[in-house]
Amino acid sequence: MKIIKLEAENFMRLSAVTIEPNGAMVVIGGRNAQGKTSILRAIEAAIGGKGACPDVPVRHGEDEAHIVLETETLIVRRTFDADGGTRLEVRGTEGGVVASPQTLLNGLYGTLSFDPLAWVGKKEAEQAAELRRLAGLDFSGLDARESEYRADRTMVGREVKKLKGLAAGLSHHKDAPDDEVAIAELTASIEANRSVNRANHDKREDLSRMRADGDELLLDLEKAQQRVTAIKDEIEELTVRGRAAAAEVGGLKDEDVEGLVVQLAGAEDANRKVRENEAHAKAGEEYAAKQAAYDELTLKIDQAAETRAAAMSMASYPIDGLAITDAGVELNGLPLKQASAAEQLRCSVAIGLAANPELRVMLIRDGSLLDEDSLRMVAEMAAAADSQVWLERVGDGEEVTVVIEDGAVRVGDGDARA
Question: Are 238 and 217 in contact (CB under 8 A)?
Fold first, then answer.
């Protein structure tokens, strides 16, 4: 579907213009500030509505602007009020009003705003993004998820690095016991054993004193026979007591104190090793968990890249050898920016012509940049694609089909040249 007639009245710089194209190329010529751009904006505004309309669509001093755009199957009538209001009517060429006109036009508008010359001048990433959009490769959701994965992975990676350093800085002791030594219990045992040993020592001292007393009494017995009877009684008594004490002392057994003291001295060191081993093990577990999370996010990022690459590899492009990569747009395996100006123009025009299969119309807003060979190539490509190119160009050379002067078609040009 192409434009077969365009009427515009009081729209932007236009006063009253009627153009009926009869070829694949419509070149709008004239001096600057005469209304050339208004022709292309009228086409956009008729199809795209307010979203494609300038802020002030009505010609200065007028109350309303009117645009009528006809294709082989539709007649679009749009009116703009000076206060910002707009009215739209879409009919079929055989009659019948379309119930939801803007919805229908939105489907036709598609990429009418695509300008091949502006696209060539964009950065590589911007070219790739627009070409993906035109090819139906919407990666917005995938890009958002990948961005989230990368942000999460960056945070997890910081924790991985931190935990790895923490684990490396902690000591691990192969000779440490499995559990910490109960120092309080060990200390209580030492004190209890010392108490027993002190009691034993006192009993031994008592025995020694008893024996000394016996010896002293025997000497007294030799010196004083008169006290023999009394001394014998004392000796007998001491003998009985001594036998009992000897029996008791003979069964005494000292508790191990030195061993417990040695054990106590090493307990704190052992406990330190146990605690350090536990910290080492915990850090290792946390590091392994974070590393696993990092690896999982990396896998998701790789999968997103594979999904994008698969979609781009299966996409259909209007030029053989044209492809989209993460870096930008390539032609025959090389960056498109490295191609000749003619090749870049050929690609961009082919993209624009293929962008809208319904309304086969492309607008070129700065056609003065094109030389005669480029104009001829664009015209040939438009004809081969059964499409229509509307192009504005400063001047009124032979290539110009319609000249605009002061908002109107210059007298003498008319519809025949269109």
Answer: yes
